Amino acid sequence: MSRITLIFISIPLILLAACEQQTGSSQTNANRVAYETNVHERVFGNYIIHINALTTDQLPTEIARGYKISRSKNRAMINISVREKQTTGETPITATVNVVARNLTSQLKQVDIREIKDTDPIAIYYIGELPVSNEEMLIFDIDVTAAGSKEPILVSYRQQFFTE
Q1: Are residue 20 and residue 38 in the same domain, yes or no?
Q2: What predicted TM-score, i.e. pTM, was given to this entire model?
Q3: Cα 89 to chain centroid, rounded
Q4: How far apart are alpha carbons 136 and 143 in whole angstroms?
């Protein structure tokens, strides 16, 4: 086999191995708890964290307008809520929520999170929007620090978006 042929065969294999390493390491970070596929809610001690992500065209028009969310197949929204277990049930609580998204090629997408409080019924949501491409898989690294807590809860959430 000639040296040039060997180089042309080696380069794709090296790139493939690098992509597999990035994908594997981005699935779970030793400090983060990964949500399994199709699981939107997890319990962390006395806290319950619910996460959902979807394209914003799936929101009803009046809801999107009310929360100033741009409806589009090419925009995604992540919605996070934090509840605390109490003797009388669960209560929504405030938290500091930070989110960074990355795709499978490790391109970062900053997600600005804003708090939404509803009074009837009482609910607190943290939402953020970002652009997405068709069939794009995003890994959301989410840091949640519940009010009154010093330690953040570190989670990882994966979602694939279909825009066509």
Answers
A1: no
A2: 0.80
A3: 26
A4: 22
